[in-house]
Amino acid sequence: MFRRKFFEIFIENVYGSMPKSKKIDTIKNDAVSLCLQKFEELKKEGMSDNEAVSHIIKEYGTEHKLREILNYEIDENMLISKEEIEKHISKTRKKAATYSISLALIILYLPYYVLWEVYGPAYNLPIIILLILVMVISGLLNKTKKISYKNNYFTQEASDLISEYHSLYGRKLIIGFITASAFLIMFSKTFIILFFDKLIPFNQKIWIGNIHITGALFVFLMINNGMKFHNMNRMSSKEVSKKYNRYFLRCVLYTLLYVLVMYLITGMLLINNEHISVSAFEFGSIAYFVMFSVVFLGLRKNYVAKVRRINIVKKAVTVLTVFLIIFYNSMSSGSWVLQPYISTIPAVSHNDNEISYDSETGVYSITSEEDDFKILQLTDIHLGGSVFSSDKDKKALDAVYTLIENTKPDLVIVTGDFVFPLGVFSFSFNNFVPMVQFCSFMRNIGVPWAFVYGNHDTEVLATHSKRELNKLFEKFSYNETSSNLLYTDVQPDITGRSN
Description:
Elements: H1 2-14, H2 22-44, H3 49-59, H4 63-70, E1 79-80, H5 82-114, H6 116-119, H7 124-141, E2 153-154, H8 156-195, H9 202-208, H10 211-234, H11 238-271, H12 280-299, H13 312-333, H14 339-343, E3 354-358, E4 363-367, E5 375-378, H15 390-407, E6 411-415, H16 432-445, E7 449-452, H17 466-476
Parallel strand pairs: 1-2, 5-6, 6-7
Antiparallel strand pairs: 3-4
Helix pairs in contact: 1-2, 2-3, 5-7, 5-8, 5-10, 8-9, 8-10, 8-11, 8-12, 8-13, 11-12, 16-17
C-alpha cells in the first residue's frame, strides 16, 4: 500500500504539466502499475528497496520516456484551453438563465390560463408560447460543443478554472436547493391545511396556497444552478463528480426526512383539530434554512477539489435578504391556522325563508312566513389573517358565532371591514385569506348574509384588489344547492363609497 502511494506521487509529479483527462488518469494508473511491476522484478534480481526505487526514477523519470514505453499520443484537436472553457461557461450561463426564468414564468402564468374563468382572461396562453420560443431560440444561439472529462484533454489553467467553477456552482446548487426547500416548507402549510377542507376545489387550493409561486421559485433556482453545475460536473473527474453527487444526495435525503417528520407532526395536530397558535411552518422553514446552510456548507470542503473563500459581508447581506423576503412573503401569504377550527363550526338553526334572485337587476328578495323578520348587523370584525393575530381572530369569530346563535336572525348584514391588512398592525398584507375564512365561517353557519366593503377591506397595501375579491365572492354566492351569501355582480344604480 505504501509503495503504491509512493509511486502515485512519483507519477503525479512526472505528469504534473500534462493535460487533465480521463485518458491521462488511465495512463497514470497504467504507469503506477508499470512501476510496481518493475519494482518487483528488480527486487527478484537482488536489488534493495532503495536501489530499485532509484533505478525506476532514473528509467521512468520523464513523461517522454513513459510515453514511449506506454505508447500513447495526445490528440491536439481534443485539447481544451482556459479561453475555450470561459466561452463555454459564458454560453451555458446565458442558456441556464433563459431556461430557468422562462420555465419559472410559465409556471406562474399557467394557473392564470387554466383557471382563467376565475382569475383572469386567457391571454396568458400566447405569453406561455412566447416563453417556450424564447427558450428554443436561446438554446440555438448559445449552442456549445460537448466537452467532457472523458473525451477531452484540459490544460492546467483550464483544469484549475473548472475546479474553481465546479466548487462555485456546487455551492450555489446547495444554497439554491436549501433556499427553495425553505420556501416550499413555508408556503406548503397553506396547501396542507386547506387539504382538510373538502368544500374548496383542488384548483383553488393550489391558487390560494401559492403553490405556483413556490414551484416557480424552486424551478428557477434548481434549473439555473443545476444546468451550470451539471456542465462543470461533466468536465470534472469521475471521482470528484461522484463525491459531490453523493454530497448533494445527502442534502436532499436529509431534507426529505426533515420535511416528512415536520408534516407528520403537523398532520397529526390537524387531524385532531388542534388549534396551532404559532406558525410551525414559518419557524420550521427558518430553522431548516439556518441549520442546513451551516451544516452542509461546513461539510463542503470534504467534497470539492477547491474551496473558495466565502465573503462574510456578502453572505450576511444574502441571509438578511432571504430573511426579509421570507418575512414579507409570510405577511403577504396570510395564515390558514384557523381553517381547522372553522371547519368544525356547526350550523345555526334559522327560519327557512324563500329566497329569489333577479339576475337583471341584481336584487334578492326574501319571503318570510313569520310576522317578524330579524336582521343582525355586524361591522368592523377586523380579521388580521396572520399567525400573530390568530388568537384575536378566533375570539372575533367566536363572538360573531355567539351573536348569531343567540339572536337567530333571518339575515346577517356585514357593514364593512371584514379584515385589517395593515402590515405592522396585523402582521399581514393579505386580505384574501381572511375573506375566504370568513366566507367559509358564514357558509358553515348557514344563515343568509350580505355585505358592503369597508375602507380597510381593500387597503392600498393589501395583496388583492376589489375586483379580485369580487371573483371570490362569486364563488361563495347564493344558489339553489349551496352557499348562503347574497352577492350580486350586477350593481343597482346606487352610488356610494363601497358600491
